[in-house]
């Protein structure tokens, strides 16, 4: 049987070599082609009607989530196995929002034994069935719960305070009133449970700085991380440059 051609989007050479050996040892009849980043993978995937892909999440040029969004926009039947060392809620949340109906995909953590990684790849790319890592399923449950899942505007508010923006600057950037900013932040604090943790004493005042506490919880839950905040910082600096130029 002619081997199926697959794309491996992975910027780490050692991780790519691991997958290449795994595919050979598992006798999956899959012939890999490497892409160093999501942008390169997207160009290769354009050659196929129904691309088969194994993709890292954190990559230069274009991350795995943006790559999947762009690919599924043009090839909704593309099958992707996301393999990552991260189960951050921000990634799981983003993926749940972009997976097209009827699309088969998988998510497996790199920390798994090679047998489980092989099973995930076989299930998605060969057997045409979804496969989600048990650890990721736990995060999906929290992401899909209305009382704990952040809305887009709440997530946006978390990014803004993570970047250290004041209420005034958030209002300018998001075209809001000061009251509108406060409303978003209060909604965020409620979802993260920050307001329930707060307590006050006459001697010491409030126990927590709510903004800092929200960022700490966001980091712990994986709603934000250093890698993605670098990208957000770059976007913010571009906006800030335009804002300063228009207010001289």
Nutshell version of this structure?
The protein has 248 residues and is α/β, with parallel strands linked by helices.
What this model shows, in words?
The chain has 248 residues and is of the alpha/beta class. It has helices at residues 13-25, 38-45, 64-74, 89-98, 114-126, 134-143, 152-162, 167-174, 178-192, 194-197, 210-221, 226-246, and strands at 4-9, 30-35, 52-55, 79-84, 105-109, 131-132, 200-201, 205-206. The strands form two sheets. The chain has a six-stranded parallel beta sheet with strand order 2-1-3-4-5-6. Strand 1, helix 1 and strand 2 form a beta-alpha-beta unit. The longest helix is centred in the last third of the chain and has 21 residues, at 226-246. The termini are far apart. The mean pLDDT is 88.
- The share of residues in helices is 40-55%
Number of strands: 8
Q: Could you list the spans in which at least 5 consecutive residues all have pLDDT below 50?
A: none
Structural class: alpha/beta
The largest sheet, given as strand count, sense and whether it forms a barrel, is:
6 strands, parallel
What would the average pLDDT be, to the nearest integer? 88
CA-based shape: elongated
- Rounded to the nearest angstrom, the distance between the terminal CA atoms is 68 Å
Our estimate of the beta-strand percent is 5-15%
* Alpha plus pi helix count: 12
């Amino acid at each position: 049987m002619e081997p199926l051609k697959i794309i491996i989007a992975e910027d780490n050479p050692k991780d790519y070599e691991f997958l290449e050996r795994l595919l050979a040892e598992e006798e999956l009849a899959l012939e890999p082609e490497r892409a160093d980043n999501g942008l390169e993978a997207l160009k290769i995937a354009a050659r196929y009607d129904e691309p088969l892909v194994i993709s890292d999440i954190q990559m230069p040029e274009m991350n795995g989530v943006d790559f999947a969004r762009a690919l599924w926009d043009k090839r909704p039947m593309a099958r992707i196995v996301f393999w990552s060392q991260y189960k951050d809620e921000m990634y799981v949340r983003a993926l749940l929002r972009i997976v097209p109906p009827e699309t088969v995909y998988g998510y497996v953590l790199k920390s798994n034994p090679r047998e489980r990684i092989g099973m995930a790849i076989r299930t998605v790319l060969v057997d045409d069935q979804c496969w989600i890592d048990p650890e990721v399923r736990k995060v999906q449950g929290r992401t899909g719960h209305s009382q704990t899942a952040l809305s887009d505007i709440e997530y946006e508010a978390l990014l803004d305070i993570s970047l250290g923006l004041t209420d005034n600057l958030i209002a300018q950037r998001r075209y809001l009133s000061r009251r509108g900013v406060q409303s978003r932040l209060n909604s965020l604090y409620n979802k993260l449970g920050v307001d329930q943790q707060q307590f006050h004493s006459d001697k010491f005042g409030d126990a927590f700085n709510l903004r800092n506490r929200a960022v700490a919880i966001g980091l712990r839950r994986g709603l934000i991380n250093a890698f993605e905040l670098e990208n957000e910082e770059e976007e913010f600096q571009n906006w800030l440059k335009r804002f300063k130029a228009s207010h001289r």
